[in-house]
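Weekly structure sync, notes
Attendees: PL (lead), two postdocs, one rotation student
Agenda item 3: pending single-chain targets
PL asked that the sequence for the first pending target be pasted directly into the notes so everyone works from the same version. It is reproduced below exactly as submitted, 177 residues in total.
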Amino acid sequence: MARTVPVMATEVPGNFNTAALNNANVKALGDFLTNPPRFKGYATTTQSVGSTTNVTAINLDSELYDSDGGHSTVTSTSRYVVQVAGTYDITGCLAWPSTSGGNRGAGLNINGASPNGSISQLAGFVGNSWSVTVSTTVQCAVGDYIELVGWQTSGGAIATAVTPALGPTLTVTWRSI
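Predicted structure, written out during the meeting:
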């Protein structure tokens, strides 16, 4: 069952702050805020991305944590599905191996579209691995899905690099209502 954000009780003259009222409101909100919805997923295998300006959703086959079960490592592995409505901080990191030519990019999509300020791109250079990080804050409803996406324009397909420090990684953290 999906969680909802607890609402603080409002007091009116004549009411008493009972243990039941405290547990139902104050403690519930404190418990929620110390364990908000959060997800961090990553890829352990490379993924081929064709040379195009169209984005490719990046599959995340492993999780460090998923407090509300919004991600599956079996089906639609590129998606984190929002379980609790609110404002979310989202960060994605995508690593590319050393190759020549073209650009490399990473972005964050909400329901298949890029919100403002959610893409980053690096110009091509030779001889080094590439890591592109992007972050944004966005309002989400229950059922919205969030994806890390990537693209590259080298002229041929390139597989993403898989490194513990550089990605591919997607982190989603609930911030507020």
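Discussion points:
- The chain has a mean pLDDT of 87.
- The helical segments are 19-34.
Action: rotation student to compare against the earlier draft before next sync.
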